[in-house]
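Entry 14. Structure prediction run on the chain below.
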Amino acid sequence: MTVPALTLSASGRPAGDSDAEVTCESDVTGDAGAPGDAHSILERQRARESSARTYARSFPIVPARAHGMTIEGVDGRRYLDCLSGAGTLALGHNHPVVREAVQRTLDSGAPLHVLDLATPEKDDFTDALFETLPKEFADRARVHFCGPAGTDAVEAALKLTQTATGRRGVLAFTGAYHGMTAGALATTGSVAVKEPVPGGGAAGGEVTRLPYPYAYRCPFGVGGERGAELAATYTERLLDDPSGGVVRPAAMILEAVQGEGGAVPAPDTWLREMRRITRERGIPLIVDEVQTGVGRTGAYWAIEHSGAVPDVMVMSKAIGGGLPLAVIVYDRDYDGWLPGAHTGTFRGNTLAMATGAATLRYVTREGLVERAATVGARMAARLDGLRSELPLIGDVRGRGLMIGVEIVDPDGPLDSCGSRPVAPELAARVQEGCLERGLILELGGRFGSTVRLLPPLVITDEEAESVLERLTEAIAEAAQAAEAVKAAKVSKSAGGSGAAGVSGRAA
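Output returned:
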């Protein structure tokens, strides 16, 4: 198959072709570039990989080496990685602690795959994981090793609670993201990923969608604490309404900070209310910590900010130290499923257990949880301080090193919460401008209008400063470009009106 070459601007996006693959401008082949340069590799990817590619469309680069927060492409260009494998790389790329754990395990001759048999590495990982849990939860906890992806762990959590309660339905929230397999997709909020799938991915029971407290775009149009109070009140009254249409469900699943939903943190008071509401009604509470876990939000687990103790925690991404691993940890009272009730070939990833244990302990030992809180608050404050200077910034939010910057149309009308309309095109320009400046970050949130920052927990002060500088420049450039377009339209409109007026007078 012959694939036509694409000529790109520095942004890396072919104009007017949203589905086209992107390629790097440079065809310099570094030592790590064989076989072929970036252009050729990206063309082959376009020809051979599925149309479901995602990140490859946004970032026209071919990484060859990586260390810490820095990625180097085959063309020799370096980037600061503020995506971190969607939050997987708590210690950044190729951290010495992770590399040492890999080498030690390989040198030991440990079996790399033994299904769910006990191994010293698995035992040690379980010890390390339980050491991070709130004591009252850890004392009653059971762990189940799942297929090595967060979505399979979500499936396991749903199956666990359905088995334990004998019920089927699930309570989930607007803006949620829980994965791409059937049950996880059903609980996910995004219409775009559900609409092409017959039934929206629904499997194993009905999903009732509840309002998640989102202060900037409050579902009740009031925002702030009052919006969160209304969300809790709505949930409680709906569940208690004999004509509300909701049969008592098997579980409620939520994120303490919505990641793909746009780095939206739930108020601690609302989280405590969800715990009270579910406990009083005998509904297990599942907290999805796949992206928020291992210190990212400034607590080891995001739910700890609220003091609420869930029945089930879903964990993946950073717990494997950069290698695939997923588990659920749950209260032993729910441990009622039969042997083989949730199984999978790749539940015994020995290397991931070794790197995971090393990462979990390093995060604790080096105080990276506290550092995430400190650095994240500093970065968020700096960005929030730019809102008057750069009105494209509608909202800055998040927790720890999980930060969202919502890009808006500064000339759009204010809604009842004082918020401007989303501006996904401007957000895409910001992302492109960041890439031009050597900064990788992703978009998320409603309409893809939120710039998301997920740097590794080991980000240095100098790197944080560089991220802020590059992002600020990209936002300012996008604002200037938007102003230029607007001015051109005004000028064209004025010119057209003038011509029409002259023509009319001549007639």
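Residues 1-35, 499-507 have pLDDT under 50 and may be disordered.
Filed with the rest of this week's runs.
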